[in-house]
Amino acid sequence: MSQIFDPMQLGAVALKNRILMAPLTRCRADDEHLPTPLMAEYYAQRASAGLIIAEATMAMPGCSAFWREPGIYSDKHAKAWRTVTDAVHQKGGKIFLQIWHGGRACHPALNDGREPVAPSALAITNDEVHTPEGKQAYTVPRALTDDEIPAIIEGFKNAAKYAKQAGFDGVEVHGANGYLLDEFLRDGANKRDGAYGGSIENRARLLLEVIEAVSEVWGSERVGVRLSPLNSFNSMIDSDPVALATWLAKRLNDFELAYLHLMRGDFLGEQQGDVISPVREHYRGNLILNMAYSASEAGESIKQGQADAIAFGVPFIANPDLPERLQHGAPLNDANPETFYSPGAEGYTDYPVLETSTAV
Ligand SMILES: Cc1cc2nc3c(=O)[nH]c(=O)nc-3n(C[C@H](O)[C@H](O)[C@H](O)COP(=O)(O)O)c2cc1C
Asked: Whose CA is nearest to atom 11 of ligand 1?
């Protein structure tokens, strides 16, 4: 029976515990999408996590969905990220990078006027995007042609190479939350004909091709993938999320990945269902679960064999020493949503640690 504080092997990577830091966009990079020294400090503070999955990071230029998000598409980006990975490794941590394309959540104001691309010309309607000029409505994306898809796959592959150069321990392919790869997966956003639309197999084709390309760089045992079949954030919906999750769980076995990272629910509480049971039943590799886990539920889930590890998002924003706090049953700091995406150290690197903590 495994416990949350037990070490584990995640593909090729040995973790000291099963309390993982979920990817969290914090918008503290600079205007060239370069990670900053403040980001190195922030991630190093959280090095007691079994694994840090660093925030969604642009795999290629022109695919930004958040103002001041980081990128990983040049030597300059790799060099700047190296200060982050070095800082985490010096403190005994492990760190993957989440690589992504924002798809229809990208906005011309964030991408030098470039229009967003997506599987189909359907806009996000249930939210707005933060730009340097304030909040704006999402624009209608242009549907990618099949001919353009190899360049997207190549972009992810290049990002994987730069992530390796930057000293990460592996990469997580972002297939969740209504961004490009997820938009292809779900039939509410993907209305295409042809090789990348229609059946689940066709809708999953891009994700699988990206995983394959990225695995060529890293070896699949250092590649993870994140999915959120139920999340309606970013106007996402699928006619049969359980069938989609089940199909993917079976198919992903072929890759022998480091892990599958499954978000169990819906940020907006609109779509219900159990995706954990079918995924656990059919997926043979390491399963990380996420979304609104308390310490006790996380511990139970691992003990009962439902999950191999749990990723915590917001609790890690406010508690740099989260594993230590959970170990001691110490109270948790509350996170301040006002500073989730604001610039600077406030609400980023200034959350207090326990007085006894070894985390700094
Ligand atoms: C500020 C913020 C930024 C986030 N950024 C990302 C991201 O970059 N990539 C991603 O896959 N999920 C992102 N998420 C979702 C979290 O990884 C996580 O799934 C969510 O917070 C639910 O987990 P929790 O209940 O433990 O916080 C973000 C969530 C928040 C609150």
From this structure: 23
Q: Are 35 and 124 in contact (CB under 8 A)?
A: no
146 Cα–ligand 1 center, Å:
31
Higher pLDDT, 93 or 134: 93
Q: Is the pLDDT of residue 38 over 80?
A: yes
Identity of residue 287 = L
Find out whether 276 and 301 touch, Cβ atoms under 8 Å.
no
Question: How many whole angstroms separate alpha carbon 120 and alpha carbon 49?
Answer: 38
Ligand 1 pocket, Cβ-based, cut-off 6 angstroms: 22-25, 55-56, 98, 174, 176-177, 226, 263, 290-293, 312-315, 340
| pLDDT > 60? residue 359 | no
At 285, the pLDDT band (50, 70, 90 cuts) reads: very high
Q: What is the C-alpha separation between 286 and 261, in angstroms, rounded?
A: 9
**How far apart, in whole angstroms, are the C-alpha atoms of residue 262 and residue 187?**
19
Interatomic CA distance for residues 65 and 111, integer angstroms: 9
How many CA atoms, within 13 angstroms, populate the side-chain half-sphere of residue 41?
Answer: 13
Going from the C-alpha of 82 to that of each of 69, 171, 200, 316, the distances in angstroms are 16, 14, 38, 22
Catalytic residue among 179, 196, 259, 283: 179
pTM strictly above 0.70? yes
